[in-house]
Each structure stands twice: as C-alpha cells, then as structure tokens.
Amino acid sequence: MKSKSRSTLMRSIALHAALTPLAIIWLFPLWMMFVFSTMPDNGIFSPDIVLVPSTNFFANVANLQADTDFVGALTISIVVAVIYTVLSVLLTSMAGWALARYRFYGQSIVLAIILGTITLPYFVVVIPQFIMVARQFHLANTWIALIVPPLFNSLGVLFMRQAFSMMPGELFDAARVEGVKEWQIFLRIALPLARPTMAALAIILFLVSWNNYLWPLLINSKPGMMTAPVALGTLIGLTKVSWGGIMAGAVMLTAPILVVFVLLQRHFIAGIAAGAIK
Questions:
Q1: Nearest one of 100, 150, 119, 90 to 275, comparing CA atoms
Q2: Beta pairing partners, 236
Q3: Is the model's pTM score more than 0.70?
Q4: Which of 73, 75, 181, 208 has the greatest count of CB atoms below 10 A from its CB?
C-alpha cells in the first residue's frame, strides 16, 4: 500500500510539474493584458519590459466610458447573451429531443442537413442573413435582430441529441404508461437528467454570444444598440487608437467569462465527460 501511494504521489507531482509551465504560458497573455490596461497609451509601447500593474486603470476606464458608453454596451451584451443562451438551449433541447426519441419521415435527411450546416463557414450565410433581416423584414437596430437570427445552433442540436439518446427509453415508456403527457416527460424527466449537458452547452453558447462581433456590427448602426465588442472596435480610428481603453475594455469583457467558467467548471466538465464516456 505504501509503494502504491508513493507511486500515486510521484505521478501527481510529475503531472503538476508538467502542467504548471503550461498554465503559466496560458495565463501570461491575460496578465499582460491586465498590466497594459493599467498603463497610459504611451507606456504600452515603451521599450522597457513592464510586468507589474501601473495606476492608470481607472483613467482608462473613464476614457473608455466617455468615448463609447461602455457600461451601456456591456449591459446590452449581458442581456443579449443571457436571453440568447436561454432560448438557444431550450430550442436545441427540443430539436435534440425530437431527433433522438421520435421516428418520422425524412429524419435522416434532417440530420444530414444539420450535420452539413456545421461545415459551412459563417461568412457564407451572414450576407444572405443580413439581407433577409435588414432589408426584407426591416428589423435592423432591434433586439430581435440581435438575438433571434443566431439562435439556431447545429452543434447544440447534435449535443442535446446525443445526451437524450444515451438515456434509457424504458424510463420514458414507463412514464407514458402512467399517463404522463409528452411535454411533461420532456420538461420534468428528460431535461433534469440532461442538466450537466445543458450546463456545458449553456457555457459554450454564452461565450459564442458574448464574443460575437461580426453580426452585431452588421445589423446595428445606432450607437445606443452597440454590444461591448463592437464598442471596443470603435476605439480603433484612422489617426488615433486608444490602446489603454481597449485593454481596459478587454479586461472588463474577459473577467466575467473567467468567473463564470470557474464557478461552473464542474458542470462543464461533467457534461463534456458524459458525452465522451458514454
């Protein structure tokens, strides 16, 4: 037993010794982003190597707010990301449930089309999508245009289909014998069992919406409807670039994502591992 525990300890030490440098390499750009956010514009391009924060962070934030109303843009990003995540998880769960638990004519064709959309680059569909939403439906500069068009997510549908396919069908058959309606089976039995997968998918979709730049840039032209990434992009001008404000905004955009991931990493890993193991 002592030799076994000693071997386990040595493997743990070797694993940490190998992963610690990789963690430092991954964290170093984030640390430098924070350091640059505390420096004035001229200090960022100083030839001296600076690894410690300065005292200009709140000044950069004030300049960022004065130039872009970043707090308002950040609020819009939060609202859009939360609503998009909730609706997209619900819709992809419904689609995944239908593909996993029902048999209908053309099911294989529908599944093939969903798989095919994953191979399409986003730039192929963004222009037709913009023409349809902005010119035909006249929905530019609206909340609907920001949230609804990107709702369909092929990866999320396949993700939830896999989760529902791994559940025992006898459980749902027993519920049907007891007279439970189909929508109650989905909401009260299937969704609670798929909670880890839904949590992992919610994190992925929240990141997709939070970091989305191209679509909000195309569909909105009013300053009051800009999301945070688009607001940061406006700081890059032809003659002046506010690097301090950009770095401060990048820190404010990155910090919530890190906090969310740290708090929900257990659910994220459980959801990914469940699909991989089974």
A1: 100
A2: 241
A3: yes
A4: 73
> 3-state class of 243 per DSSP?
helix
Hunting for tokens 């950009």 — which residue is that?
246
Contacts of 15 (CB under 8 A, 6+ apart): none
- Both tokens of 120, joined, read 């399409």
What tokens appear for 100 in the block?
């996993």
How does DSSP assign 92-105, residue by residue?
A: HHHHHHHHHH---T
Round to whole Å and give the CA distance between 177 and 217.
52
Burial of 42 (0-12, 13-18, 19+ CB in 10 A): exposed
How far apart CA 258 and CA 265 sit, in angstroms, is 10
User: What was the pLDDT predicted at 84?
Assistant: 94
- Does residue 209 surpass a pLDDT of 60? yes
